[in-house]
TrEMBL record:
Lineage: Bacteria, Bacillati, Bacillota, Clostridia, Lachnospirales
Protein name listed in UniProt: Antirestriction protein ArdA
Origin: domain of life: Bacteria
Pfam families: ArdA
Length: 104
């Protein structure tokens, strides 16, 4: 029906210019079987403005405390590249030229 097409167009316009909107095709291909499913779950997609796995690892460990509070003097000994490589292989993450996306 026409109202569904109009609603989908409004959603696309709403996402236009955002990181999720810029990578809509890649995100949909990675996690969703249809555009409607993508739209239904778009708010569950997290965006990280980082360039690679090591940067994501450092952000998650230092800023989001995924392993709990780690003293600053120990943070310099963490192998962010190794953990970043693991994140890059994790299906919950999508690495793009726009940044990294996570869908839970």
């Amino acid at each position: 029906p026409l109202w569904e097409i109009n609603a989908n167009c409004r959603m696309v316009l709403e996402l236009e210019g955002t990181p999720v909107g810029n990578e809509m095709k890649a995100i949909q291909q990675k996690w969703f079987s249809s555009f409607d499913e993508f739209i239904d779950h778009k708010d569950e997609i997290r965006y990280y403005d980082v360039g690679d796995g090591a940067a994501l690892a450092e952000y998650l460990i230092c800023e989001e405390n995924v392993f709990g509070e780690i003293p600053h003097e120990l943070q310099k000994h963490i192998d962010y590249h190794s953990y970043g490589n693991e994140l890059e292989m994790d299906d919950r993450y999508l690495f793009t030229t726009s940044g990294v996306f996570r869908y839970q």
